[in-house]
Amino acid sequence: MNTKLKSIKKKMVPVSKKKAVKKAARKYSSSATLNVVEDSESSLYNFLNKMICGDTLEVMKKLPSNSIDLIVTSPPYNLKNSSGNGMNVNTKTGKWAGNALQNGYSHYDDCMPHEKYVKWQNDCLKEMFRLLKDDGAIFYNHKRRVQNGLIQDRDDILKGLPVRQIIIWKRSGGINFNPGYFLPTHEVIYLIPKPNFRLKPKANAYGDVWEFTQEMKNGHPAPFPVALIDRIVSSTNAEIVLDPFMGSGTTAIAALMNKRNYIGIELSPEYCDVAKKRISSFIEQQSYLLIHS
After folding, report:
1. CA angle, residues 36, 41, 47, in degrees to nearest 5
2. What 3-state DSSP class applies to 166?
3. What domains lie within the chain, and their CATH numbers?
4. In the beta sheet, which residues pair with residue 263?
5. Residue 115 backbone dihedrals phi, psi, to 5 degrees
6. 241 - beta bridge partners?
7. Number of alpha carbons in the 13 Å side-chain half-sphere of residue 223
8. 75: nearest Cα among 4, 3, 164, 141
9. pLDDT one-digit tens code per residue, 68-83
10. pLDDT tens digits for range 258-288
């Protein structure tokens, strides 16, 4: 197991050590993120290392152009707008039986008309691209589907954007109750870079097919594996990492693991609170290790 991931699983901080831990937490927080010069006129500084609860397009429009090094995100997939058999609320059968996504996300039901969804996501991607520095990149995670016998390969969402590569990642495990098709286990990451984006030396050896264990202990209905985001962040020289659909805070955790700055945007107050608690807990645990090292 990745040593960085092992540290997340360490025991919680004893109450008797709280004062020492708080002091260490301040030290860890300052060392865990790269130095950024404070500028009262820079709107970017006001967003660094924070969770912003709000509409992602509205918030991104407040950020300056050419200011972000790396964007890693996975939007809602619009799964409840399906021609298939599964994504009805409280369905008892089919591949989505008992899945938390049946009820949609907190504050978002994941059921837009397809054309409206495509426009929304394309607008989001174009706004993300505006924010990138000349050597920045977007890693945009999505899922291809078959609807009414036709493949939705997300070309419509990606229209007008310079996709450089497609990465396939597979989650380990899963159960399929439908005998009509094989168990779906993979998702797709589209690498959408500015012209000068480059990976760190030797990172290109990973290849374009990845496999990670599925996140199990997470209150969000569709969480990223921490190891997946860790691979992306650690493969770049990015100093500022943005996730405009932050969910439960996994991208922030991966950024902190790699001593990078993060910006998180999330519509749901519930998931914002979950993310803030995860980030605080991670920093406390790292601080505990710091004072005992």
Report:
1. 55
2. strand
3. 3-7+16-34+41-291 (3.40.50.150)
4. 50, 242
5. -65, -40
6. 70, 262
7. 22
8. 141
9. 999 999 999 886 555 4
10. 999 999 999 999 999 999 999 999 999 888 7
Say which residue, 109 or 292, is predicted with more confidence.
292
Q: Find the helix or strand (DSSP H, E) in which 23 lies.
A: helix 18-32
Question: What contacts 105, CB < 8 A, 6 or more positions away?
Answer: 76, 221, 222, 268, 271
Nearest C-alpha neighbor of 284 from the set 34, 3, 32:
32
Tokens 């749901």 belong to which residue? 268
Whole-model pTM: value is 0.79
Element (H, E) at 53: strand 50-53
- The residues with which 172 forms a beta bridge, in sequence order, are 213
Residue 133 CA: distances (Å) to CA of 10, 37, 51, 152, 287: 36, 17, 21, 30, 32
Per the listing, tokens 């497609």 go with: 166
Of 274, 232, 219, 222, which is closest to residue 249 (Cα–Cα)? Answer: 274
Q: Which two tokens stand for residue 20?
A: 């020492």
